[in-house]
Amino acid sequence: MTQQFNASAKPTLGVEWELALIDPQSRDLVPRAADLINATTTDIQLEREFLQNTVELVTGVCYNTPEAIAQLRQGVHDLQTAAASLGVKLWSSGSHPFSDFRENPVSEKGHYTEIIERTRYWGNQMLIWGVHCHVGVSHQDRVWPIINALMTKYPHLLAPSASSPGWDGLDTGYASNRTMLYQQLPTAGMPPQLRSWQEWESYMVDQSRSGVINHTGSMHLDIRPAGKWGTIEVRVSDAPSNLHELSAVVALTHCLVIYYDRLLSEEGPAALPSLQPWHLTENKWRAARYGLDALIITDRATNEAWVKDELYSLVELLEPTAKEFGCTQELHQVEEILVQGAAYQRQREMLQETGSWLPVVDMTCAELLASM
């Protein structure tokens, strides 16, 4: 099966941000995404997502993080205006802490219906939201070496954005319970460690022959090629609860892809970092469980370091790239998260202080509004 890749001449950026709708009285999710989209006048692309409670904001092709965030800010502003007229609030987080999946209908798309029919219980659990960053790549042969390198920084991309400690009324003990939930789908989770575009094409042949693609439409991997757009799509991060933290995650992701792309050109594939598959799996779990307090494996010799220390070093490494692409301030907002704490920590602290998830929902909705 030939996998088309419409290569990007430049390392362009596109961002998809999933937002949910909240009833201000019950603080539960409400399935009014279609109503909200119909009521919103905006220049940014809005899409209905898997659940009827979710709206996805999609930027155009951007040069850098400030341009993408400016589009998203305007989109959220327009959505906020329409949401107020409908009597709902916007919510951004990795998961909702107490909503019942049985009360949240799936959007009326054949593709989504197929997923639910096939995956049943686990498919119905997907009350989760993320942010997806597309970064342009100049040739298909560069895609998988860069993806493999990005996977070594999985904890770095997840921990600052982690915002889903609550589930079914419980504090799960995880920073990102969304990460653990999403990987239950048969086509989701970590990408295979492929070495070339030809191996990807062979992989997709197998998925087609076995009927997997027929059921799901695509592979919902944590990081994947997006051949139609000529990008690598990074889907690791929870949906941040405000535009400041979103800016940090987007800048980090964009700069990291560019850095590895250039390293590949300058020094070849051997210069890119790699980890054994079992180390990647362990690092993903540690980041989901412990967030910014994760001790992660940093090399093939199984040395370890604190993800916070790694993030400080990574920001320093990427600073020249950020300066070139006009996102130095946004990249350094990663350091602000390290100092001030991530969304999962704020949510957990509010729960411990009040004994209720309702103030957590209120706080998270207020964070989004305040970041405008």
Topology:
Elements lengths: L12 E10 L10 H7 L5 E4 L5 E5 L6 H22 L2 E3 L18 H15 L6 E6 L6 H9 L2 H5 L7 E2 L2 E2 L5 H6 L5 E2 L7 H13 L2 H5 L3 E2 L1 E4 L4 E4 L8 H25 L9 H14 L4 E3 L6 E3 H18 L3 H13 L2 H12 L3 H13 L2
Parallel strand pairs: 8-9
Antiparallel strand pairs: 1-3, 1-4, 1-5, 2-3, 5-11, 6-7, 10-11, 12-13
Pfam family, one: GCS2
GO molecular function, one term: ATP binding
Keywords: ATP-binding, Ligase, Nucleotide-binding
Give an overview of the whole structure.
It catalyses: L-cysteine + L-glutamate + ATP = gamma-L-glutamyl-L-cysteine + ADP + phosphate + H(+). Keywords: ATP-binding, Ligase, Nucleotide-binding. With 372 residues, the protein is an alpha+beta fold. It has one domain: Creatine Kinase, Chain A, domain 2 (2-Layer Sandwich). Helices cover 48% and strands 13% of the residues. The protein contains 14 helices and 13 strands. Strands 1, 2, 3, 4, 5, 10 and 11 form a 7-stranded antiparallel sheet that branches. A two-stranded antiparallel ribbon has the order 6-7. α2 (65-86) packs antiparallel against α9 and α9 packs across α11. It is globular and about 55 Å long. The protein starts with 12 loop residues before the first strand and ends with a helix. The model has no long low-confidence stretch (mean pLDDT 93).
